[in-house]
Write a structure and sequence with these properties.
Strand 12, helix 7 and strand 13 form a beta-alpha-beta unit. It is globular and about 65 Å long. Helix 12 packs antiparallel against helix 13. The chain is an alpha/beta fold. The two termini are about 30 Å apart. It is built from 13 helices and 21 strands. The structure holds zinc ion (2 copies).
Length: about 450
């Protein structure tokens, strides 16, 4: 199908056969003739970046270059723009058009922040639900409306643990604990797919009591069906949407009103518009905020704003309850006030102070080897060599959050390239050092993967 499209575009002389091509990120490689306009919807989407395998490119940024070569125009669309694009718009590199009204004139939802910790302390929790969320769930159903419950963890529990000795089953190929999937009665690694049956007793101390910790969408579905019996529930996550047919069926049933309660991971945020959703509940916002990355505030703001945006009714105002253990967190506060601009301003201050994008460009050099000693030694050597030859900040080496995936031990080096730097010269110097390490016999099984503008 791809080849066919490629050939059709190539044969499309003077736009006689068709004028518009719809495509995913790879569409930017089609052999256009007289390209006039590129529209990139949801431009903040991380999936525009192809990180693995090569070619590593960001389709949005590549499209902007492509348009420049053709003298074409580009429209980037988003309700929650990436800070980079918003920065470019504010510094007049791009033009900015604001749409202040929601589609169909649906009013912005009311946002309620619920304190999980306080509710626990006062013993007011119903399962995973604060009194704020649970009472609105009952109200919404009584009013004959639908709801979406969001939890960005799939599976039943995050992991299981031996009650006696605290043993936690983990993946044999990766440094992560295995997620419990009750329907399949399996423990599964979400990084490499490694799966085992649930052991009947602890292999360390033989205690039969293995308890579940944390909760995913599967557990949430079970809890809701017990607490609110008689309502049709659907779950939408990676596990229930493996085929297009199942995915479409979940959407259709919710659109048609057959499903009253939709439980899901971020899949539910992807551009779906329903007109009878009275309530959206975010079960645990902290999951999003505590990710150690300079973009984590931006990302969690975007994600929460998108989830909240699913609350909408033709005839009234939808409600959103965000449950958190940290109600005073700046991102939560900005979501509450719906203030994208001040969120952006406070983050930009930090990025400028620490020279993160858009104030610099990043180059991440990832090193992989089966042996921890080798990858440590090679990455240390490379970082040292780089510091000697390039006049820009070199950070690391440091182990990523998950230091081993699919048997490969990982290390990262981060290079901050100032906007003013002469990129071509730097590139040559960096490449020379990488090639030097690569050419050494002892490192012949080492992979070095440089990625410019990693996301
Ligand atoms: Zn044990
Ligand atoms: Zn694994």
């Amino acid at each position: 199908e791809r080849v066919e499209t490629f050939l059709r575009v190539r044969e499309n002389k003077a736009g006689k056969e068709f004028k518009v091509v719809l495509g995913a990120r790879s569409a930017i490689f089609l052999p256009f003739r007289d390209l006039g306009l590129i529209i990139i919807d949801e431009e903040y989407e991380q999936s525009y970046k192809q990180a693995d395998p090569a070619p590593r490119y960001h389709a949005r940024d590549a499209a902007i270059m492509l348009a420049d070569m053709y003298g074409a125009k580009v429209i980037l669309g988003s309700a929650t723009p990436s800070f980079e694009s918003y920065h470019n718009a504010r510094s007049n590199k791009y033009g900015l058009v604001l749409l202040d009204e929601r589609f169909n004139r649906i009013t912005q939802p009311e946002i309620i922040i619920a304190d999980i910790r306080e509710a626990y302390r006062k013993k007011q929790m119903t399962s995973y639900f604060t009194p704020e969320l649970f009472s609105l769930m009952e109200e919404t159903l009584a009013e004959d409306r639908q709801m979406i419950l969001f939890q960005n963890r799939r599976g039943f529990s995050l992991y299981i643990e031996c009650f006696a000795c605290s043993w936690i089953p983990s993946c044999i190929h990766c440094d992560v604990s295995l997620t419990y999937h009750k329907n399949q009665h399996k423990l599964i690694c979400h990084y490499c797919g490694y799966a085992i049956g649930v052991p009947p007793r602890c292999p360390e101390c033989s205690d039969p009591q293995l308890v579940t910790r944390g909760f995913g969408t599967e557990k949430l579905e079970e809890e809701v069906s017990v607490l609110l019996p008689g309502y049709s529930i659907a779950r939408m996550d990676f596990d229930t949407t493996r085929t297009r047919r199942r995915y479409e069926r979940i959407i259709r049933d919710f659109e048609g009103g057959q499903t009253r309660i939709l439980i899901g991971t971020q899949i539910v945020t992807k551009g779906l518009d329903f007109d009878n959703v009275g309530l959206v509940g975010v079960l645990h916002a902290d999951n999003l905020l505590n990710f150690p990355d300079f973009r984590s505030f931006e990302r969690s703001y975007q994600l929460m704003a998108q989830v909240a945006g699913r609350a909408g009714r033709k005839d009234g105002r939808g409600k959103v309850v965000i449950q958190t253990t940290n109600p005073s967190h700046p991102v939560i506060q900005h979501i509450h006030s719906g203030d994208f601009h001040s969120m952006y301003m406070s983050q930009m201050e930090e990025r400028q102070a620490f020279q993160y994008p858009p104030y610099s460009r990043l180059l991440r050099i990832n090193l992989r080897h089966e042996n921890r000693e080798f990858v440590d030694k090679a990455s240390k050597q490379l970082a040292e060599n780089l510091r000697k030859v390039i006049p820009v900040p070199v950070m690391g080496p440091q182990s990523p959050i998950i230091g081993r995936i699919q048997r490969m031990q990982l290390m990262n080096i981060l290079v901050k390239l100032p906007r003013s730097a002469r990129m071509a010269d730097l590139k040559k110097l960096i490449k020379k050092e990488i090639d030097d390490i690569r050419s050494r016999r002892e490192y012949r099984k080492l992979f070095i993967v440089p990625d410019v503008d990693p996301v």
